[in-house]
Structure formats: structure tokens, C-alpha cells
Amino acid sequence: MLCLILSLARNQADLDAVMLEIDGTPNKSKLGANAILGVSLSVCRAGAGAKGMPLYKHIQELSGTKELVMPVPAFNVINGGSHAGNNLAMQEFMILPVGASSFTEALRMGSEVYHILKGIIKAKYGQDACNVGDEGGFAPNVQDNREGLVLLMDAIEKAGYTGKVKIGMDVAASEFFTKDGKYDLNFKKQPNDGAHVRSAQSLGELYKKFIKDFPIVSIEDPFDQDDWSSWASLQSSVDIQLVGDDLLVTNPKRIAEGIRKKACNALLLKVNQIGTVTESIQAALDSKAAGWGLMVSHRSGETEDNFIADLSVGLASGQIKTGAPCRSERLAKYNQLLRIEEELGNVRYAGEAFRSP
User: Fold this and answer.
1) Which position among 270, 288, 321, 333 bears the catalytic label?
2) In 3-state terms, the chain is what percent helix, strand and coil (to 5)?
3) Is 270 a catalytic residue?
4) Which of 50, 58, 115, 291 minimizes the number of CB atoms within 10 Å of its CB?
5) E-only strand ranges, 179-322
6) Are 91 and 81 spatial neighbours (Cβ–Cβ below 8 Å)?
7) CA atoms 98, 99, 103, 107: torsion sign
8) Could you say which of 135, 175, 302, 341 is catalytic?
């Protein structure tokens, strides 16, 4: 029995394939995606143990990654959308310390900006605005998305990191996509007068203005998950990273469609969206082969499991999104990345090259 267990642990792809065959459904509904995922992650950890190597090194071997790279953290520091009780339509306002020399320095820079941002928000909106959302970001009661970006710029400047810390956004536009194909930036107030409803073209122009006025390097889910033409139009007219999350759901068929339609240029990789380690690795490899960026991500509902920290390093994703430097289930990932960097010693930090490390 021990030999069988060790054999399975050393053959991740075979075990994942057996589970998928037994399940036999397109969405893993027979065995259950969470059950399959739990076994797949456990086997991956066991495989690393059987080889006597760290988990990130085992993932590197499974994926054929040539060089291990420490990722740029995308800290979600202001929450809006369905994740917060304020009026902000856009879901996440993030900071990316691309100018750091190491992950350790990046974490320090992000933490400093985060705490300075808290002081700015407290002074402007009051103590209640400093309560944090499920990913650790603040939720000040503002409606204008530009105001959220201005708050980030003020905090970055006050921290002394202008030029070193860039901005990312997760718009989660499917949340405010209307039945008639428009986007309601006041969707949390129903009914409303329609003054904040925009066409896809108008919303695209708003993004371009944001990109011009702020150091934005990444926008996730700028349009609805089935509004392929709007994605492709924006992708062809900007040179920043456009990340597909709701658009792609870490699904090989959706990724292939995204590549074919030139809808985006980066994948948000969520292991529990697809369900097995093998499928996650393949999604990453397909995305990289297309010249895309790769952002490993947590979920809004999280545990203190830190698997994705090792996954990000093992895949050399170059970037990881796992919340603000706050709340233990978010810090668990950042602490693991600190340990990995310390253990590796002389390891490269993705920095400005986070899109193609």
C-alpha cells in the first residue's frame, strides 16, 4: 500500500486524470470539484515530500519551468464592487511594487503604502472608513472610481515610492453589466436615474483616460465575461496588461477562445476554478505559450493554506494576487513567499518584468 501511495504521489498527472475519468462530468459535479481539488493538492504536497524537496521545486519540475522567480504582489488595498458596502462600482484597487529589488522589499513597500493609505482615509472619511473588507482592503464611502485612484496616488507619493509602485484594478464589470448590454456604475443604488450608465465604448474610453492619468499597469475584467468584442477592442488600443478572470475562469476552452479572439493578454489562475493541479499547470503553460502574463490568485473566501505561494514561484508566474497585507489568511501566503525567498537566497524578483519574467 505504501508503495502504491508513493507511486501515485510521484505521478500527479496520472492521479488527476484518474479522478477526472471517474468523475466523468464536464464540471466535476459527480465527485465534486472541492473534493477533487483537495486530493490533487494533497498529492502534490506528498509528491514533494516523496522527492525530499520543497513544494515550489516540485511544481517547477512538474511544469518544466526553467528558472524560479519571485512574484510581484498585487495588494488589494481599496475595495468596491460586490466586495464592499460603499458606492464604488469597481471591485479592487491594487498597488504593485514593481520597483522593489526583492520580494521582501516589495512586501515592506506595500505595507508602508497600505498603512499610510489608512491614515489618509481616516483623515478624509472618518474612522469607520478604515474597516477592512474580506480581502483586507479599505472601503471608503466614495462613488467616483477616479477618487479611489487619487487616494492610491496620494498614499504612494506620501510613502516616497512614486515611480516604484504602480496601480492595478479589478473592475469585475460583469457585476454591473445590464440586460441591455450597458454598464451601470451606480448599480448598488436601485432604482437610479441612469446618469452613471455607460456604453461599452464609453467605458473603454474611461479606462484609457485612467491609463493616461495614472500609472496603471494592469486591469482585470474590464468588461462582461461574454462581451468579447469590447475586450478585443480595448486590448488592441492599450499596451497595459488586461487580465481575464470572469472571462476565462481558468478553463482551457475559454483560454483558447481568448487567445483566438485576442481578447486579453493575461490569465488570472485560480486553482479551485479548474479543480486539479495538472489542469492548472496546463492552463499556465497554454497562457505563457501565447505570450500572456500569468497572475496566480487567491479567492475572496480564503483559508490559511499557502499552496498558491509555492505555485506562483514554481510556475515563475511573475505576479500574485492575494489581498492586502492584512488578515491572517492573506498574510499566510506572503509569509510563505518570504520563507521561500530566504531559502533560495540569490533568486530573481520579477519587478518591472512581471508580465514576462
Assistant:
1) 270
2) 50, 15, 35
3) yes
4) 291
5) 183-184, 197-198, 216-220, 241-244, 266-269, 293-297, 318-321
6) yes
7) negative
8) 135
